[in-house]
Recover the amino acids of this structure.
């Protein structure tokens, strides 16, 4: 006789995703300086309650390390190269490209939900990168964890983020989020 065990839910092995303009992959320890550069922005640290100000390389390393248990995973969204290297030029050693434009966080929330959150760097805001990255991650999570609902928390006053979540099919549940001043939204 044998026992079949259900696969343990884990975010530790989320695959790399490619979209039209972005390469999305789990942040690695060597990405800490890029993560610090992107995230050490008062507009980001004020909006994401668990990010300290200033956001240091050590904070970036800790955030990246937090994914080791598989309950949380932070994925970087890098600009994909727009053209092939010139003849005789070397391709970048990093296939993701040099420009980290945003981060999508995923968190297993109890046994029935996955929470997503995100931030985009100043120069990349308003250019559709958040929609592109978050929609790719949400689609992946829906396929990989069909029994879980996907949720997000957002301040109603954060018009851009609230609108993005609604565009992605999230609806206000009428419940307060775990974080101060936020509402819980669920993907329909």
């Amino acid at each position: 006789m044998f026992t079949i065990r259900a696969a343990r839910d884990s975010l530790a092995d989320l695959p790399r995703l490619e979209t039209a303009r972005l390469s999305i992959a789990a942040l690695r320890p060597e990405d800490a300086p890029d993560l610090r550069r992107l995230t050490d922005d008062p507009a980001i640290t004020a909006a994401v309650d668990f990010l300290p100000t200033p956001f240091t390389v050590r904070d970036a390393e800790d955030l990246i390390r937090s994914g080791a248990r598989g309950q949380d995973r932070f994925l970087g969204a890098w600009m994909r190269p727009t053209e092939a290297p010139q003849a005789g030029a070397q391709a970048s050693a990093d296939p993701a490209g040099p420009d980290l434009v945003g981060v999508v966080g995923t968190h297993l929330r109890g046994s029935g939900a996955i929470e997503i959150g995100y931030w985009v760097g100043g120069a990349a805001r308003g250019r559709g990168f958040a929609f592109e990255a978050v929609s790719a991650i949400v689609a992946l999570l829906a396929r990989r964890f069909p029994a879980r609902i996907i949720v997000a928390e957002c301040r109603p006053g954060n018009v851009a983020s609230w609108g993005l979540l609604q565009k992605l099919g999230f609806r206000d549940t009428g419940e307060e989020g775990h974080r101060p001043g936020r509402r819980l939204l669920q993907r329909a």
About this structure: The chain has five helices and eight strands.
